[in-house]
Inverse folding.
């Protein structure tokens, strides 16, 4: 990915390198990646509305 993103990980994520994702936000797009595959791994891109809907459903 050629654009600079500021990735963040949940404060609920431990430091043992378990199953975590990182999220970055740029304009109207949210980027999601596996914290274990930060170099060259796949990155999911989703619009803010889609991300908001996903987080709402996951919280139920």
């Amino acid at each position: 990915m050629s654009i600079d993103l500021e990735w963040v990980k949940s404060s609920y994520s431990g430091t043992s390198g378990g199953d975590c994702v990182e999220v970055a936000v740029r304009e109207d797009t949210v980027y999601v990646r596996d914290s274990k595959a930060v170099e060259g791994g796949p990155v999911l891109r989703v619009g803010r509305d889609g991300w908001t809907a996903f987080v709402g459903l996951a919280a139920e």
